[in-house]
Amino acid sequence: MDSALVIHRLHFAFTITYHYLFPQLTMGLAPLIVIFKSLALWKGDERYNKAARFWAKIFAINFLFGVITGIPMEFQFGTNWARFSHYSGGVIATALAMEGVFAFFLESSFLGLFLFGEKRFGQRIHWLAAFMVFAGSWISGFFIIVTDAWMQHPVGYEIAADGTAHLNSFWSLLFNEWALWQYVHNMGGAVITGSFAMAATGAYYVLSRKQEEYGRLFLRVGVIVAAIASLLQLFPTGDRQGKLVTDYQPVTLAAMEGLFQTESGASIVLVGQPDTANQKLDNPIYVPKALSFLTHRHWEAEVKGLNEFPHDQWPDNIPLLYYSYHIMVGLGTIFILIMVTAVLMLWRTKLFNSRWMLWIVMLSFPFPYIANTAGWITAEVGRQPWLVYGLMRTNEGYSSNVSAGNGLFTLLGFMGMYTVLSILFIILIWREVGHGPDFLSGKNHEHGKMDLASAA
Amino acid sequence: METLWFILVALMLTAYVVLDGFDIGAGIISLIVAKTHDERRTVLRAIGPVWDGNEVWLLAAGGALFFAFPLLYASSFSGFYLPLMMVLWLLMLRGIGIELRSHVSDPMWWSFFDFVFSISSLLLAIFFGAAIGNVVRGVPLNADGYFFEALWTNFRVGTNPGILDWYTVLTGVLAMIALTVHGAHYIALKTEGDLNGRARSVAAFGWFGLVLLTLLSLISTLYVRPQVTDNFRLRPWGWIIPLVVVASLVAMQISLRKGRELAAFLSSTTYIVGMLGGAAFAMYPYLLPATTNPSYSLTIYNAKTGAYSLSVGLVWWAIGIALAIGYFTFLYRSFRGKVVLDNEGGY
């Protein structure tokens, strides 16, 4: 715990993991809010506007927390990873700077109009504002993925005379094959978080017999979108990401799967505990030959195990990588089961009366957060020991001029700050969900007091 | 090309200070000028739709700086590690101070967030001013272009200074006064009645402090870093900048007396542009001077990125900023005029 490298890794990991709890919901909710606004314009039904206003409240709180926890991310490349920033700034700073001018201005300007302008500018402008906020948040996600994808699979660069990486092809950077699949997979994950949150809120309203009309609306939109997104997450987006890892990071694939020895007709492990010291998996439950088929589309294909690679190329935390990958895939499979069942029940008009199913939908909302987080841990721990795959090792990139003591000081500061933020966040979301869409009928601020009692 | 990017980054930072500067100034004065619940809501309403967009200029400027001068970004962000982290915490507190107040209708909740908003704004202004002071004074760079500065050493300028010394404290206080006055002009412009009157008094009172501190900081800068006059000798057209600063101060006083709120706000904007423009002009081509050995200084030549990136960057930057200016024009036009309290959208 006293090495500067460890502190800087923890610093970035902690702040970015916490940060990403918020954007995954805002990026997931934004298209759903556009759906409500479009339905309102199309059908002329005020209930859709009320639904949009309710989700705009939840969105706004999440957006604020996303913004204030996101600013540190842009700074921490320089503060904690200075040598990495100097080395790769010639490439990735193009993506990060483009995010600033193309995404942040768009979403922040139109968010003001979206939250303050419905009465003042009318429904059409309000729809446009909602759409622009959606576009801004999704463009922002794209540039971040481009940055990460370059670290996973560097393209479009050359090494200059001073030893740093310089961009030599703008379009290769933006259309990095890795970035495109990672982007759709990541945004799918965000939509899963957003739609699960919406379905769970709907289930809560129906179960508690509060504002049931909105509860049913949220359930309908939530479960349909969640089912589609969960299926797409498995195929094609997850499948294609797996292929890219197989092709470009074979050692990562072996570690993710817990495959210590090369096998032909390799089986896929569903549950099991990796024992890195003895290079084996304990208590495995597996599906024979499935890994060979999934990675090479051939049941008998050879899949390279960790034994094929020198130790200094292995990811440095194989158990963490293995578990986060298995948690992501396991949860993703459960999401499909839950939401496809829910859609079938919706179709047979049984969903709203099935209390046990509504309980499942309601209690499932935290799991997409876990799956998204586990997915990112898989990507980032899987890239180790590299900071930029094949070019720069993680221990070469941190700010060696910032001591472990100074790093720990600010890490603890962030932990304290984020504890306070978490408490405030939970209080505020709890209140909004307690109020529900019907509460937002105009002059809500004056009866806040009264409703504090009823919400508590 | 690198000169052009130096100007673009300086412009974006200036845009940040001008725009978010009035949000920060409004925060500093909010406890003093806004007494009642409705007055405090009015202050928040005046900056509510725009503060987040204004803050984006800091991110966009930071991104552009990283893009054009990666070594400067790496060196300065890690070297100013501690104060930057504190700025991040203050920006968080400022954000929740503005946005969370309205969510609960309870006087104690309001008081808490009013205080958070005001104190974080005050400290932000001082930190930003001290940051500029540090850049002008120089930092103890080593041969690789890196440094690490403690928060303070002995409060003297020298080869091993801290973040805070007498000079950077002075620039911090100057920034605080400048943004207080700037914010007071903005609040006067956006409000009516008692609130408007009190904001104007703050601006009128602050003007004297501003003139005094501007002079003091100018004299100290000449003492701390005499090289700042080189560019004025080399490029005499630069003398227009101090003239602009003086003219803006005079115009501010006249507009204040005649009650022209917009003119006063624009004068204060011109003052900030003039001061920051002057600093950038005097620094060029230095980005971060070294107090250790002048040859270790970071300049636009040794910190720049590849030529290909810089030229491609001009294309997307121009498109992106044109769009951003479009959004901002639309946004500010949409919310122009005095604030009217209604119940839509919070605060």
Characterization of this structure:
The complex is a heterodimer of chains A (456) and B (347). Chain A has 456 residues and is mostly helical. Chain A contains 15 helices and eight strands. In chain A, the strands form four sheets. Chain A has a two-stranded antiparallel ribbon with strand order 1-2. Chain A has a two-stranded antiparallel sheet with strand order 3-6. A two-stranded antiparallel sheet of chain A has the order 4-5. The longest helix of chain A has 37 residues, at 212-248. Chain A is globular, with a radius of gyration of 23 Å. Residues 442-456 of chain A have low confidence and may be disordered. Chain B has 347 residues and is mostly helical. Chain B has one domain (2-334). Chain B contains 13 helices and two strands. Chain B has helices at 2-33, 37-47, 51-68, 70-79, 81-99, 107-137, 166-190, 193-224, 230-234, 240-258, 261-283, 300-303, 307-334, and strands spanning 286-288, 298-299. Chain B has a two-stranded antiparallel sheet. In chain B, α1 (2-33) runs antiparallel to α3, α1 runs antiparallel to α6 (107-137) and α7 packs antiparallel against α11. Chain B is globular and about 60 Å long. The model of chain B has no long low-confidence stretch (mean pLDDT 92). Chains A and B meet through α3, α4, α5, α14 and α15 of A and α3, α4, α5 and α13 of B.
